[in-house]
Please model this.
Amino acid sequence: MKGYKKYYFNKILWYLLTLVCAVILNFVLPRLMPGDPVASIASQSLAGVTDATQVQKVYAEYAAKFGTDRPMWEQFFIWLGNALHGDLGQSFSQYPREVSDILAKAIPWTLALQLPAIIVGWLLGNILGAIAAYMKGVFDKAVLPLFMFIGSFPAFGMATIMLYIFSLKLKIAPTAGAYGFDLIPTMSWTFVKSVISHYQLPFWSIVLITIGGQGIGMRSMAIYELNADYVKYSRFLGIKDNKIVGYVFRNAMLPQITGLALSLGTMIGGNMVAEMMFSYPGLGMTMLTAVTGQDYPLLSACTLIITIMVLIANLALEIIYGIIDPRVKAQQQD
Amino acid sequence: MKNRKMNKIISVIAVAAMAMSMVAGCGSSSSSTASTDTKAETEAAADETTEEATEAADTEAAADETASSDEAATPRNETVYFAGQQWGAVNNYNPMSSNSNCWAMSQAGNCREMMYESLFMYNCLDGSVSGLLGDSYSWNDDKTVMTVTLKQDAHFSDGSAFNSADVVATWNAHKEYNSPTGASYTLYIDSIEAVDDYTVNINALLDDQGRAVNPLQIETYITAIFQMSDEYLQVVADRNNGDADAIKEDRMEDAVHSGPYSPYYASEQKLIFVRDDNYWGQSDSMWGSLPVPKYLAHVIYKDNAAGQTALQAGEVDACQQFITDVQKLWLEDGLSISTWLDEAPYGLCLSMPTIWFNCERNGLDQTAVRKAIAMATDFSQIAASAMSGQTYTFDEMPRCVANPTDAERKYIDFDQLTDLQFSGNDVDGAIALLDEAGIVDTDGDGIREYNGENLKYQAECPSGWSDWNATLEIIAAAGQKIGIDITTYFPEAASFYDDLTTCNFDIGMWTPTGAEISGLWARSAAYFSEDYAALEVNWSGNFGHYMNDEADALVKSIPYMTSDEELKEAYTTLSKIYLEEVPSFSAMYRPQAFFAANESVWTNYPAQSNSETCNIPPLVLTDGAGIEALYHLQLVEE
Model:
């Protein structure tokens, strides 16, 4: 147990250090973008005003309100102090809305879309990979290559193709949004059906491009495991194929779990393109708005969430690895 | 053994769930069938809900109540759906806010009369001003006091009467809290005082000579500023303890307003307004009836493409977006989509996207360089490719400071401008002009020099504004043909705004004021005002800091001119300077509000060919006098 403590302590320490660096970068990088969003807000509201004093006065009011009149290091510590209390500030582009309010409305949609899509994609990919390795034939020569081809599509490309085929041409799927354009959220079957309907294209566009990558990884690992000595020995012993495949699958799964954890951590960053393409109201859309509106507080908050998710996923993975595969812990301790 | 069984069960459930979701998903791509099935119940429920929502006066609460009682809350045949006007969740309904993004409160030249109302409405088709909350207005002889009489049967959504106290309170609130409106108009209005319950005097701020600083701005005020309830303003002030900043940030979800539509539902996905069936405008002194649609809804799309897709799918009725080759939607795709005109330019061109030169840059401070670039630009290519024919050519509508409407063009003597016009793609003429001015390439690198420096510029506009991006590419190509190295630069919009408003650009593209009551003067000021140029940060105009004392003096004197002859002479002179000096030049004519209507559910939209609606400006059914369109809409299938 002593070994575990040291292992976990080291890991957590490094992750905390990474978090500090990431938080600083999340704050600083958006603010290095050219342009002054506060000047935009102030001067847009003063179009037609010819009195320079009045313009300056209003600009100064906004700069003071958003804190952009202070040095960046001071802004950082104010922001950090507030963030630790759950106050992520006010959005520039949607002022005076609170950033936390905007995020609270976006995150559930993203989680509801991305989490199942990645898990389903991962599962289907691994099953396909294992089948391709074990049964070969059409699965290895046609199905897996097909999904690898699909998986090489960029997210926006896949989304566009699906939108074109299923929405515009076949007209069997909606074009945009999370539910019918004529509905208001209710607990009715009409609404639920509409949500499911709108869920399909973004969901499958993520799933389809996930399958190939996961499948090829699983296939390689499974082939490697199938040729391992313990498999041959098991066969000599007359153990049934099903039992052997079970062992092979479990061993081949280890690197795949890494892939899943990383996918979960980066889901918002990578797959948010699908959200944007389908006008799905998640973090992807929120980030797009923040970038185009030079909305520092909102952008910093979005990237902070992504950072924390990636770090948590990685930390959880390393901790779990330490338990499920003691070799990893042992090697790290050397 | 147990594990295997469990795995099988889980697998079956998972596969079944996925299959079910696909079947359910693909089985119905739209909720319209369900909406129709439950229409009767829905209408009743919606009525109930509306009443409750109004009483609760809280959008969120309304949504929650709706959720429990109503399935298809905005039935297709009672709702007009919009696109292109709301790009994010609404942040407030507060007319005193500095940056409200609420679709119902946008001011694109003409006041949007959906929720709040102005005193008067401007009709950009004929230049007329008609009464809304106001009945009539008049100036005293020296234009220092404007007297406005008010409609006596107007009232707010809470039933309280609209009267002089509200007009006074609206002004005082803007002024006291230093709202954007207050900051803008305190430069022109000294005070507003009640004469009696239904008459107010607007007292102009006077200059050193005892004249009103700018009477035109007061005329703009009465057509552009939303009137608020005195009592409600007090409620807002009380709940914010009189704190000006807090008052300006108040979301005003419970707003008391005079317009025909109230907030109904707002989320990250959509914004819906419901008709106030107690709307005062149904009286004979105004419209004589309620607007036809019960709901006005706007789904929040991510971009133009998503909005256009929805329009084509019949999910949007009125679309305020630029659509390339819009005519193909009905000619090739066979969709029942219409525009103001059946043929090019399809829309009502009211604004003039303009190329602004930074007159402080080496070379661009020379008239010859500016004019040569303008002369060499291929405007027919801009019209054909960038605008896909949705603009007049400059042969059809010669350049001047006026937009292409009779309401403004009557102030221009085009005979005096004939010799000054340039129709574009005149590369030889541009080269000759530069050579004559001694601006030549001396070092043989193919680029002309001025003061020993190569003429090298960036042409800038926001990224993703495809028609503008294409326009600047055409201008850059023109520059290369005449030995001026122009490259394009398309930053994010916020970065571009920063460059434009701080004169940190070489060549920029932006649209000056479009059609509004004082639009011609405001656009002239945008081209020539030295006051704007003197601002450190300015969104008002003269972004390139062009200095011409004669033009500036004319801009300052126009607000005091009263006779048409005098105005015509002044605007013609300004147009001459504009064409001779080329401080900037229009790249195209363009609709102030794009407007494509899908007529599969609603019809009888504003159209020049429709005798019933031809005098209603096609301003997306809601702006200025254009709101009359909502009273003429008809269902395709009753």
Notes: The domain at 101-333 of chain A is CATH 1.10.3720.10 (MetI-like fold).
